[in-house]
């Protein structure tokens, strides 16, 4: 089952002169949803402060599938589709309140030693929850 805690109401500043969500705002929502997953996995700001390491986004593909308007409630579900101690690939769906998938995002992250500026492996105890969720996500489809 995908990780699905993210929800947001489209604010006015996310809309453009066409009256719908600006393309960059879709990425903001997708990225914020992924960040919630990193928080639950213990790999967000606290991890960076503690270790100096972090996952860096190195690639992102967005598919725009439906318009979103100011005031619409959006939710997201994220699945880990690939991971090892140095990299992680997520697929996230952004869904409107009416059930229509508005966008999908595929993101690719590398685990980076912030002091050295180089990719490094995630410690085994930090990778274990990532791997467990990957297995669960792969098993659920």
SSE map:
Elements: E1 7-9, H1 23-40, H2 45-51, E2 53-64, E3 73-84, E4 87-96, E5 101-113, E6 118-119, H3 124-139
Antiparallel strand pairs: 1-3, 2-5, 3-4, 4-5, 5-6
What characteristics describe this protein?
alpha+beta; 3 helices; 141 residues; 37% strand; 6 strands; globular; 29% helix; six-stranded antiparallel beta sheet
Describe this entry's structure for a reader.
There is one protein chain. By secondary structure, the chain is of the alpha+beta class. Helices cover 29% and strands 37% of the residues. It is built from three helices and six strands, in the order E-H-H-E-E-E-E-E-H. It has helices at residues 23-40, 45-51, 124-139; strands at residues 7-9, 53-64, 73-84, 87-96, 101-113, 118-119. Strands 1, 2, 3, 4, 5 and 6 form a six-stranded antiparallel β-sheet that branches. The longest helix is centred in the N-terminal third of the chain and has 18 residues, at 23-40. The protein is globular.
Largest sheet entry: 6 strands, antiparallel
**Helix and strand sequence:** EHHEEEEEH
Q: Which percent range describes the beta-strand content? A: 35-45%
The gyration radius over C-alpha positions equals 16 Å
Helix percentage: 25-40%
- Quote the distance from N terminus to C terminus: 8 Å
